[in-house]
Amino acid sequence: MASSSIFVVTLLAILVVFTGSCSAQLSKDYYSKSCPKVLSTVRSVVQSAVSKERRMGASLLRLHFHDCFVHGCDGSILLDDTPSFQGEKTARPNAGSVRGYNVIDDIKSKVEQVCPGVVSCADIVAIAARDSVAILGGPQWDVKLGRRDSKTASLSAANNGQLPGPTSNLSNLINRFRAKGLSEQDMVALSGTHTIGQARCTTFRDRIYNENNIDSLFAKTRQRNCPKINGTGDNNLAPLDLQTPNCFDNYYFKNLINKKGLLHSDQVLFNGGSSDSFVRKYSQDQKSFFSDLVNAMIKMGDIEPLTGSAGEIRKNCARVN
Q1: What is the Cα 120 distance to its own chain's centre?
Q2: Angle at which helices 201-210 and 216-223 pack, to 10 degrees?
Q3: CA-closest candidate to residue 189, choices 92, 64, 285
Q4: What value, to the nearest 5°, has the Cα angle with vertex 246 and ends 208 and 275?
Q5: pLDDT by residue (tens digit) across 129-166?
Q6: Is the dihedral of CA 248, 289, 296, 185 positive or negative?
Q7: CA distances for 26 relative to 41, 59, 208, angstroms
Q8: Strand, coil or helix: 319
Q9: Alpha carbon distance 195, 29 (integer Å)
Q10: pLDDT for the residue numbered 25
């Protein structure tokens, strides 16, 4: 009995050390000596890309989200298909929807010139997401770094519902974020990133034609560019935030209070449920929204990183070394 207890205690001690090691190896100063110019290099490329197309800021932010929610923030979403595995790019939540791969490739190329073989693609995605938010008027924060890149990707994992879809109800959203260690408040704050970006007609068609908790004039406005018939205008775009589509602010939440959420999964955040109080708070207090968003982004960036000797530092973000 005593030896059994010693074994359990020892095992618990090992687990504590092991589970604490991942986050401990992520640090805002991770590249301070090995690649001191990484942040300015990434920022320069992101600034150029967003200047050419404001929507790209939202796309880079979404890329980070879709990467982290499938097997952690490991850059797996960037991998092209190979004979040995199917990547995540063609998964239902990503195909024809996730963008910005070319910008990440451009950043990687520039970073490799400055410090070859040092900075991971996963970290580049995380930095680019932060820079996109800041460039478009949102908050600035220190990104924790030190992630390594996965050597594989999983189409099935990206398709199995880990990524919340545009038709998700509130309980579904809460549960999927909670499964990743994110609270309901984190979920609402992260949803506020829909203050930038655009969505395809196919993702909001049902809402603007069939739902009741929607402002009628807003619905009619959106219907002009999104025909009711499936297969017609499916890829036509509409801004997620009607008021300030290219500025990172708290108008997304003001829109929800006025029943002008574009996606079903947007409006469920303010529809008589438990998240109403967060939406009301953020609609009135942008500073509070920014503060909670920063905390949530840092938590999301901590999801299952590969550190230490796990994974690799890819030379090309689209394929393993």
Answers
A1: 17
A2: 140
A3: 285
A4: 55
A5: 999 999 999 999 999 999 999 999 999 999 998 899 99
A6: negative
A7: 20, 24, 43
A8: strand
A9: 30
A10: 83
Q: How far apart are CA 109 and CA 316, in angstroms?
A: 8
Q: Among this protein's residues, is 66 annotated catalytic?
A: yes
Contact 88, 158 (CB under 8 A): yes
Structure tokens at 36: 């001191």
Entry pTM: 0.91
- Listed residue (98, 121, 100) closest to 111, CA to CA: 121
Enclosing H/E stretch for 239: strand 237-239
Q: How far apart (Å, rounded) are the C-alpha atoms in residues 75 and 315?
A: 12
Instruction: Tell me if 58 sits within 8 A of 196, measured CB to CB.
Output: yes
Catalytic residue among 66, 71, 194, 264: 66
Per-residue pLDDT at 161: 84
Contacts 24+ apart (CB under 8 A), 285-293: 285/250, 286/249, 286/250, 289/189, 289/192, 289/250, 289/253, 290/138, 290/139, 291/139, 292/185, 292/186, 292/189, 293/138, 293/139, 293/189, 293/190, 293/192, 293/193
Reference 205, options 189, 222, 193; nearest CA is: 222
Burial of 60 (0-12, 13-18, 19+ CB in 10 A): buried
Residue 146: CB atoms within 10 Å: 21
User: Stretch 220-240: mean pLDDT, rounded?
Assistant: 97
pLDDT tens per residue across span 269-319: 999 999 999 999 999 999 999 999 999 999 999 999 999 999 999 999 999
63's tokens: 């890329």
Token pair recorded at residue 83: 């004979």
